[in-house]
Amino acid sequence: MQRVDLEIEDIAFGGAGVGRLNGKTIFVPLTIDGERITARVVREKKQFAEAELEEVVDAAPRRAQPACPYFGRCGGCSYQHISYEHQLELKHRQVEQILRRIGGIAHPPMQPIIPSPKPYGYRNRVTVHAEDGVIGYYRRNAHRLIDVACCPIADPEVNRALAELRSRNPRNGHYTLRANEGPRVFAQTNDEVAQAMALLVTQLLRDGDELLIDAYCGAGFFAKRLINRFDRVLGIEWDRHAIAAAQRTAIAKETYIAGDVDEAFAAQMARCDPARTTVIVDPPAAGLGVRTRRALLDRPPHTLVYVSCDPATLARDIRELQQQFELLSVTPLDMFPQTAEIECVAHLKAKPDV
Ligand SMILES: C[S@@+](CC[C@H](N)C(=O)[O-])C[C@H]1O[C@@H](n2cnc3c(N)ncnc32)[C@H](O)[C@@H]1O
């Protein structure tokens, strides 16, 4: 395959460095903007090519020493070779670019990114896979496992659980290892950034609303923290174990519905006074379902807070929601340092009736 000399201009969402050769974009993982490198093209498409780094000819000053011996081979992290400060700059810029490109927003109302107090040792749970004595994660670009004795982005408690799992020669399968006891339902992965996110959402809300609808509520992460700000809260979530966990500690003004948001949300919106309702949505990476988007456009709640783990689907959804909502702010949060993933909180307000 062809060897190329490149100057890396940027880092795309997903983590690969971006270079250009004869007008064609070439993506090279494990590089940094500002570097001169040589790479080997491994996949050639009409519009772009993918290449593997061979040598860093001129290293960027932001190049850092990875803390993990598996970095580069393991599929989990993409950014350990980049200083933490520059990771934050990149993620902020990537969100802004995606909102422009996919969301069609000329001037995205970006707020500063909220960093993780712990750049390593922050993950309160990991899922490892065991296959024929190999216990670890999938390799970068391959459906094969890499044997992992210790994961530096995981909490020390999780690493103790990993050592214990490895010592008992587990059967083939998937194992989720956790730092905290608690119900086996979705929980935010980085405790400190999750707390910062909850505080941010609290600050975005206005007082005096009657109802909070927490859609994709899990075990009520937002609903339970915000209960004092509303006359009643309603959570919707399809994981029955999460709903049961939410119900266990519910007080009279909390209601939780087990079901598909795309089916249940519209009926709840139809029953409420949108002018006195706040909606929080925290969907999976696929973003909002079509019927949920339509329900928001049919009866726009006064305040909409969109918590997203995928800036591309966030931008797609905001593009449509702008028919009825004004986008007030977007705050990226670094929930997943060393990886290419980005969490965002977008604050939208219903446009006044015309
Ligand atoms: C990103 S998590 C957020 C959970 C919660 N807000 C939290 O912070 O813990 C997304 C949640 O949506 C749920 N979910 C995904 N698709 C759904 C759907 N179509 N209807 C209802 N719940 C859904 C998942 O089970 C998961 O609990």
Give the key terms:
354 residues; single chain; seven-stranded mixed sheet; six-stranded mixed sheet; alpha/beta; 17 strands; 3 domains; binds S-adenosylmethionine; OB fold (Dihydrolipoamide Acetyltransferase, E2P); Rossmann fold
Describe the protein:
The mean pLDDT is about 95. This protein has a seven-stranded mixed β-sheet with strand order 13-12-11-14-15-17-16, with helices on both faces. The chain starts with a strand and ends with a strand. With about 350 residues, the protein is α/β, with parallel strands linked by helices. It contains eight helices and 17 strands. Helix content is about 25%, strand content about 30%. The protein folds into three domains: about 1-65, Beta Barrel (OB fold (Dihydrolipoamide Acetyltransferase, E2P)); about 100-115 and about 190-350, Vaccinia Virus protein VP39 (Rossmann fold, 3-Layer(aba) Sandwich); about 125-180, no CATH class. It is globular. α6 packs parallel to α7. Bound molecules: S-adenosylmethionine. S-adenosylmethionine binds near residues 261, 262 and 289.
